[in-house]
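Section 4.2 – Deliverable D4.2 (structural model, holo form)

The reporting period included a commitment to supply a predicted holo structure for the target in complex with S-adenosylmethionine. Inputs used:
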Amino acid sequence: MDTTTEADVADKWNRNADQWTKDVRNGYDTYRDLFTLPAFQAFLPPMEGLKVIDFGCGEGSNTRRLAEMGARMTGIDLSERLVEHARKTETETPLGITYKVSSFSDNTGFEEASFDAVISTMAFMDGPDFQGTMREAFRLLRPGGFLAFSILHPCFITPGVQWQRDAAGQTTGLLLSRYFERSNFTETWKFGDRPRDEEVTPFAVPRFPRTIGDYLNAISDAGLRITRVEEPRPTPEACEAVPRFARWRDLAAFILLVRAERPS
Ligand SMILES: C[S@@+](CC[C@H](N)C(=O)[O-])C[C@H]1O[C@@H](n2cnc3c(N)ncnc32)[C@H](O)[C@@H]1O
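Output (structure tokens):
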């Protein structure tokens, strides 16, 4: 049973919010900039003119990229402080995005069947109720509308995972463990590419491990039809810019991308 509530998740992300926003906007999230967001954008169909809601939008960087692809965006997030940052940027550089503080697992208050697409980037493993999230995605989508999301790959980023190294210190594999463990935990980390001499408090991020079956079955149980699943690898250019990305090209999948539609 999960012991961390949505109120705890909101509290943790409110505390992370200022540093997170600064770091993301300073370009220290190289995974996002060079790998996970370009892969997600390539996974999407044309977005021009679509009415789209971003579940777990954070400070809104990715929501803005989707608006720049021509989508009419709404972003929701549990963290008031992250939404404050997103709104401030929208005021300074308007892209027509509306933001709301709301959980993606409950009734978000938007009208039924009022969106062409529900998207989410790297947020669902950070929320406690994925089944509720899928029910709300189904409710918000018009018939024929689609859901597309990225998450940490549930088969490879397991609770006890560690890199395996040879005697020379070369990374040779990934040692998986505790795949079936579903107890939530809080992970603390900072962006690997931020300057070493700057002392910052690491982010505290609640995580809710699930198996791949938990994810895929919750999508179909909600009435959505899975149409595409991808496990993208970093491009040669990304591996050249950040050599440690090669581990995710050669040894294991870092993210899982899923698309599903609400049947017409
Ligand atoms: C790793 S961040 C990703 C944020 C954003 N999608 C991005 O890629 O920059 C995860 C986000 O999910 C949000 N979140 C977690 N559980 C949530 C829930 N139940 N409802 C809405 N947002 C949630 C957190 O507040 C946090 O902003």
